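Aim 2 progress update. The chain analyzed this quarter is reproduced below.
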Amino acid sequence: MNGSTGDIADDFYHRFKEDIQLMKTIGLDSFRFSISWTRIFPNGKLTGGVNQLGVKFYNDLINELLSNGIKPFVTLLHFDPPQALEDEYGGPLSPRFVNDFVAYADFCFETFGDRVKKWVTINEPNMYAMRAYDFGSFAPGRCSQCHAKIVKLYRKKYKEKQKGEIGITTTTHWFEPKYRALPSSQLAARRVLDFMFGWFAHPIAHGEYPESMRSLVGDRLPRFTEEQADLVKGSIDFLGVNYYTMYYAEDAPSTARIFAATNPSYSTDSRAIQSSTYMSKTNYSNC
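Predicted structure tokens:
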């Protein structure tokens, strides 16, 4: 109505020094930010050229943080895989994406790693799968092998000399049984947590998906090869968790289970119903 646009938002690119002074004033000792892949490699690849203005911006940002006693905490991929790689070979769905992601990470470690001591490979990898392929609202991606190979590169080539740490940041809600006295609700809460948090945390710890996912999803769930499992297992120095809220979970009724059997998807596979409403242990009228 008044001609406003979103062309200029918080304008961090031009005003980061002011923002850092605000961080210092309120006593922050670290700042997590994400490097935009295409601000470094406009075409997604090192062979396509490096944007030196982008490199300068991140160098200036890192140096300004450190000069104010604030540690940079850097994420490499935050919902923005390069469109050029999507157009060329399907982006993260292609195995070729892994090598391009590793090359981008290698450049970042080499360029910024003398000052950055905390690295996150991917922000909320489960959102790439759920919000991209199930709901269609986020950019698509496959993450496990990218993450694991980048960690392997960092540990082999940079960790000893740069003295840094590398991990991944996932997201989850917490789930409580809607009917706490019912074992079926207790199991449903555990299953939903497996499907949201365990989906990505369990392979990193154990080299495979949670048993509940393997059992309920069956052949539609990809299997790790022995080599892939060895690569993924233990591939973190730390685990970041973005936690937003909690829900209640209950076992799906028989009609929902029949629907899930004929309409398999991430939304139905857990055989559980989520809600924000709690029912006391003595009120089973809606079971």
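The radius of gyration is 22 Å. The CA atoms of residues 189 and 249 lie 5 Å apart. These observations will guide the mutagenesis experiments scheduled for the next reporting period.
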